[in-house]
């Protein structure tokens, strides 16, 4: 099987891709790993940020507003360079407090920047969804004596999460695609592997075609999975399937 | 004391190119978007397929990879096409500005396609029927009835696309375009003050975002003049 495939590809324009499939696999795994880590950390950060953003306390609200506005209003590439190259300007300080070891690593800088970036976008999505929860439901819950944490856990968040899901799907897809920027700070993700193989084989178009196809496939797989999740979470909003055996078709 | 150690001029050099690229890309993306929307809505199967493949691929592949594909792809394609036409070896060298504008235009045209498709579909069918019954040709209906309203429905989406496009110009530095990121890099290297330079660049992008949002707000007000709305 492998030998016949080898014969099929070895002499074609796609040979550089075929001969380096293992590298592309590792690159894809790194891309997925960076996406998963940043999405998870970003989500953990986003909820408190969203709550602070709608807080009545201006000392809590304004700094978070500024943070969200900055990260949504500037290019991710600048943010990445600011962390990766910019930290070098304060090297002595970072060495003193013992974090230089981390900031020197492109991997750490990538995760840090992507997390801060996606947390800002996700917080804004969550804020919109929380504020869209009908106030009558909150009033009803209060009338039952729910407040604070319990009100959020039982009433506000379940509703808000369902409403936020379509926009959050987009955000996760954007973050997944945005991870391709980490190749610029020397990480060997899917795009990074593509760059290296091109620099050796000069098969520019073939390699980018293959890399693009992998990104495309994973993107639509993710969208499909999120749609399944959305379908599951909205079961109570659909009509109940008809009970009993289906009526026999009229003769 | 000059915190930029005499390299403050790099920002001026860079931001003019960044603004120029974004402004030149916008009409390309709008034309691509209108063509794409026509392709999606036309009662003509091949056009539907081409438009669907276009938006599906562009939305499925990262901007950075698309930029590299289109940049090298268009060069290779033009080279091949011209060689076939003239029958000889043709070597062309697209300057990075034109390449950048074409690349971003193709990418953001796909986003504009979805915006325009939604805007055309938001026009009430009755108006089009009324125009036809008054004897207007399809083209006249498009010009007199549809286009004036499409802008109103499309402006919020186009505004968002513009903001994303503005930020995406930063990626043009990977195809050697001398825009803000590249000039900032020159300043950062020469002064060894990367944080100062990238922070300033980020605030310049933020400034462009804020100006764009203000203009978008005014444009939406203008497009919605004469429209009655629920207000509290």
TrEMBL record, chain A:
GO terms for cellular component: ATP-binding cassette (ABC) transporter complex. One of its GO terms (molecular function) is transmembrane transporter activity. Residues 28-226 form the ABC transmembrane type-1 domain. It is found in: Cell inner membrane; Cell membrane. Pfam families: BPD_transp_1 (PF00528). It is a multi-pass membrane protein. Its main location: membrane. InterPro entries: AA_ABC_transptr_permease_3TM (IPR010065), ArtM/GltK/GlnP/TcyL/YhdX-like (IPR043429), MetI-like (IPR000515), MetI-like_sf (IPR035906). One of its GO terms (biological process) is amino acid transport. Keywords: Cell inner membrane, Cell membrane, Membrane, Transmembrane, Transmembrane helix, Transport. The keyword Transmembrane applies. The chain crosses the membrane at residues 24-52, 64-85, 172-193, 205-226. PROSITE patterns: ABC_TM1 (PS50928). The keyword Cell inner membrane applies. Belongs to the binding-protein-dependent transport system permease family. HisMQ subfamily. This is Amino acid ABC transporter membrane protein 2 (PAAT family). It comes from Dongia mobilis.
UniProtKB/TrEMBL annotation, chain B:
It holds the Pfam family BPD_transp_1. Gene3D superfamilies: MetI-like (1.10.3720.10). One of its GO terms (molecular function) is transmembrane transporter activity. It is a multi-pass membrane protein. Its main location: membrane. Residues 15-216 form the ABC transmembrane type-1 domain. One of its GO terms (cellular component) is ATP-binding cassette (ABC) transporter complex. It is found in: Cell inner membrane; Cell membrane. PROSITE patterns: ABC_TM1. The chain crosses the membrane at residues 12-35, 64-82, 94-116, 153-175, 195-215. SUPFAM superfamilies: MetI-like. Keywords: Cell inner membrane, Cell membrane, Membrane, Transmembrane, Transmembrane helix, Transport. Belongs to the binding-protein-dependent transport system permease family. HisMQ subfamily. This is Amino acid ABC transporter membrane protein 1 (PAAT family). It comes from Dongia mobilis.
């Amino acid at each position: 099987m492998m030998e016949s495939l080898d014969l099929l590809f070895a002499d074609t324009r796609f040979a550089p891709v075929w001969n380096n499939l293992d590298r592309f696999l590792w690159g894809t795994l790194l891309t997925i790993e960076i996406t998963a880590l940043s999405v998870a950390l970003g989500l953990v950060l986003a909820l408190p940020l969203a709550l602070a953003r709608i807080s009545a306390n201006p000392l809590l609200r304004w700094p978070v507003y500024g943070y969200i506005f900055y990260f949504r209003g500037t290019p991710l590439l600048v943010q990445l360079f600011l962390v990766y190259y910019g930290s070098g300007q304060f090297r002595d300080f970072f060495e003193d407090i013992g974090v230089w070891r981390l900031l020197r690593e492109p991997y750490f800088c990538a995760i840090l920047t992507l997390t801060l970036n996606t947390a800002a976008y996700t917080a804004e999505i969550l804020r919109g969804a929380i504020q869209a929860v009908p106030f009558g439901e909150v009033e009803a819950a209060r009338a039952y004596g729910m407040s604070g944490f319990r009100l959020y856990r039982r009433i506000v968040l379940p509703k808000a999460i369902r409403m936020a899901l379509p926009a959050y799907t987009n955000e996760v897809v954007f973050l997944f695609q945005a991870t391709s920027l980490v190749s610029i700070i020397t990480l060997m993700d899917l795009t990074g592997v593509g760059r290296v193989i091109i620099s050796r084989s000069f098969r520019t178009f073939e390699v980018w075609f293959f890399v693009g196809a992998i990104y495309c496939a994973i993107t639509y797989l993710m969208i499909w999975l999120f749609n399944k999740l959305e379908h599951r979470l909205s079961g109570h909003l659909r009509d109940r399937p008809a009970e009993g055996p289906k009526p026999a078709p009229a003769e | 004391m000059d915190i930029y150690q005499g390299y403050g001029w790099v920002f001026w050099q860079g931001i003019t190119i960044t603004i120029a690229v974004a402004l030149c890309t916008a009409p390309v993306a709008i034309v691509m978007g209108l063509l794409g929307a026509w392709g999606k809505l036309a009662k003509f199967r091949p056009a539907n397929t081409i438009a669907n493949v276009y938006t599906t691929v562009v939305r499925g592949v990262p901007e950075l990879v698309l930029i590299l594909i289109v940049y090298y792809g268009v060069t290779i394609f033009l080279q091949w096409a011209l060689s076939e036409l003239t029958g000889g070896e043709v070597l062309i060298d697209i300057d990075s500005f034109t390449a950048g504008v074409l690349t971003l235009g193709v990418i953001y045209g796909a986003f504009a396609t979805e915006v325009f498709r939604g805007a055309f579909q938001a026009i009430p069918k009755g108006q089009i029927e009324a125009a036809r019954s008054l004897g207007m040709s399809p083209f006249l209906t498009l010009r007199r009835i549809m286009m004036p309203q499409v802008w109103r429905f499309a402006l919020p989406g186009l505004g968002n696309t513009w903001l994303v496009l503005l930020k995406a110009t930063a990626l043009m530095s990977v195809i050697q375009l001398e825009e803000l990121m590249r000039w900032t890099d020159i300043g950062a290297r020469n002064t060894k003050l990367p944080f100062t330079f990238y922070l300033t660049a980020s605030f310049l992008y933020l400034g462009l975002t804020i100006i764009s949002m203000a203009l978008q707000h005014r444009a939406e007000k203008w497009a919605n003049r004469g429209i009655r709305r629920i207000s509290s």
